[in-house]
Description:
The protein is built from nine helices and 18 strands. With 261 residues, it is α/β, with parallel strands linked by helices.
Amino acid sequence: MKITYELLQEKGACTDGLEWFKDNFPEGCKLCEETIAKIDDAPTEFVWWFYNNVQQDKRLYKLCGVNRSNCVNWSYGVNRSNGVNRSNGVNRSNGVSWSYGVNRSNGVSWSNGVSWSNGVSWSNGVNESYGVNRSNGVNGSYGVNWSYGILNSYGVDNALFLADKPRTYSIFGKEVDERRFCKVRDELYNKLNGWKPTFNNIKALYIKSGSDWKLTPIQDAEELSIKDAWSGMPMEAVEYVKSLPEFDAEMFTKITGIEVE
C-alpha cells in the first residue's frame, strides 16, 4: 500500500503530522525497512497514530521502546508485556491500560505503581482501591494486603471475603478523630509538594534516558529497598512529622529507613 498525504488526510491525521509527512515524503512512500529507518526520529505520537489508524505493522514497535511485547497501543517503555494501551514503564505485565510503573501484573487499568497484582482497574493500587499488595478480587477498598474478596472496606490484612469494614483514623498507631487526621494530612501533603516514595527504579531509568520512554531500558527495572525508596522525602516534611505530638521515632525509622534523633 502506498502511503500518501491525501490518504493520511482522509484518515484524519493532525496538521502537524501532515506537515511532517509532507516534509519527509513529498512523493509518498511504502512502509518498508528503508522507510522505517528514515522515520526513526519521528515524534512517537505520530507513529502510534499511524499504527492505529493506517497500518498495524509490528516493525513500528521498535520506534516506541517496545521489546518482546504484543498488542501494544500508544505506550512507551514496554518490555515482555501483552495488551498494553496508553501506558508507560510496563514490565512483564499483561492487559495494561492508561497506567504507569506497572510490574509483573495482569489486568491493570487506569492505575499507577502496581506490582504483583491481578484484576486492577481505575486505581493507584487495585480497582478503586489504594495500597493493595499481593491480593485478588479487591473492589472499592483501601489498604488491602494478602486478602481475597474484599468489598467497601478499609485497613484489611489477611482476610477472606470481608465487606463494609469501617474507616478509622490514626497517626503513628494512635487513634485520632477525623478532624485532627485531616489537619495533619493536609499539612503533610503540602510540605511533601507532590513527592512520594518510589519502590522501583523505573522513574530513575526514565530520567536517566532523557525523560524519553522509548529510550528507557525497562528490562533493567528492579525493586528498591525501603531506605532508598524514602531517601528523597523533603526535609521540611520530615521535620513536620517529627514535631507531631503523636510522633514515634522508632516506628518512623522502621517505615522509612530514615534515622531521626
